[in-house]
Amino acid sequence: MNSQSRTRGFSHYKFCTAQKAKTDIINLCDLHRNR
After folding, report:
1. What is the pLDDT at residue 1?
2. Rounded to whole angstroms, how far apart are CA atoms 34 and 10?
3. Distance between CA 7 and CA 12 in Å, rounded?
4. What is the pLDDT of residues 4-29, one digit of tens each?
């Protein structure tokens, strides 16, 4: 595995975690709003 594909995979992983964290935060806000 060369370093370029590893970096691309890592940034993709970081992007996915950021997206998931964003949706988790939105879900939390929705939960609080629904209460």
Report:
1. 55
2. 36
3. 8
4. 888 888 898 899 899 999 999 888 88
